[in-house]
Specification:
Length: 325
């Protein structure tokens, strides 16, 4: 297994004729075809006919099929092509490869010590079936799950452990790569009590990437008066460029350029797209504002007004000012 990432590892997995790549190594590999898998959190524990799967598979570059064999008949499966033959992968198998990568990271960090037990975080919205499937993914990765925690709750626990004398009410705003989660809790002498959680399965960094992709395509078509091709490989390349621009903006304020040349009916069309933080906030404004509805629901569950929050823990892929008032 080849792993490549920065301080975070994108949840992308490539099954390449017996070799498994994860993170940036998977994203940047050439000629991935339909074997590059992502968004596994949106598939795991779901049936083929699930509304989420039905809607999302229209935009995925990999193919989703129905499991026809018992005991998991009707389950959403992923079709890959290895050594020229079709192979069906379960979402648990895909997630297991990511967990194997994390296990390898941990063992390297610990100087080669074997890691067999784990506390694994899941999105706040995960139901019993999705949590059970996550435990199965861990088993396939050689891990014994001590506990499943919601992702924002884990961040709150980390804060409580860091400042054991703190007595305050906190809100964790966790806008990750694929999902958005919120937890509201009270820390008393290092002890955490969660009062409310909420989340959105379709509000994360990858969704913001798609917003930039859509804006690029709209500008391209407006400039050239032609339809942008519906080619999955081409769109994945564009999406990677948009993701890189977004990540570069997160670390610097400089304007980013996305430049592509596309061949349509034997004619080449080039378009250079510019985006800076102001434009990013402008086109993604509705989605950023949408996070506040999720925050409001979590506060309502906790029966708290915004002014009762003493501290906000932000875990985001992008620089973001957050005002609850």
């Amino acid at each position: 297994m080849l792993i490549l990432g920065r301080n975070t590892t994108p949840s992308w997995v490539l099954f390449d004729n017996g070799t498994v790549l994860i993170g940036d190594a998977a994203i940047n590999a050439p000629d991935t075809g339909k074997n590059l898998i992502y968004d596994s959190k949106r598939i795991i524990g779901r049936q083929f006919d699930d509304e989420v799967v039905t809607n999302d598979r229209k935009k995925w570059s990999f193919e989703i099929v129905r499991e026809r064999n018992l005991p998991s008949q009707g389950k959403a499966m992923i079709k890959s092509d290895e050594f020229g033959r079709n192979r069906l992968l379960s979402p648990e198998e895909v997630s297991a490869e990511l967990l194997k990568g994390m296990k390898s990271y941990a063992e390297t960090y610990l100087g080669g010590e074997s890691v067999t037990n784990a506390v694994i975080t899941v999105p706040a919205y995960f139901d019993t079936r999705q949590r059970t499937a996550t435990k199965e993914a861990a088993r396939l990765a050689g891990l014994n799950v001590l506990r499943l925690l919601t992702e924002p709750t884990a961040a709150a626990i980390a804060l409580a452990m860091k400042d054991k004398q703190a007595n305050k009410t906190i809100l964790v705003y966790d806008l990750g790569g694929g999902t958005f989660d919120v937890s509201v809790g009270i820390i008393t002498n290092g002890e955490l009590k969660i009062l409310g959680t909420n989340g959105d399965t379709h509000l994360g960094g990858e969704d913001f990437d798609e917003i930039i992709v859509s804006d690029y395509i709209a500008r391209f078509e407006e400039r050239h008066r032609v339809r942008f091709p519906m080619d999955n490989v081409l769109r994945r390349r564009l999406r990677n460029l948009c993701r890189e621009a977004k990540e570069n903006m997160a670390g610097m304020k400089a304007e980013q350029k996305i430049d592509m040349t596309v061949s349509i009916n034997n004619t080449s069309y080039t378009y250079e797209y510019s985006i800076d933080r102001d434009k990013f906030y402008d086109i993604c404004g509705p989605s950023f504002r949408g996070t506040m509805g999720v925050v409001d629901d979590a506060l309502n569950t906790a029966n708290l007004e915004p002014d009762k929050i003493n501290d906000i823990v932000k875990k985001t892929f992008f620089f973001l000012n957050l005002n609850l008032s």
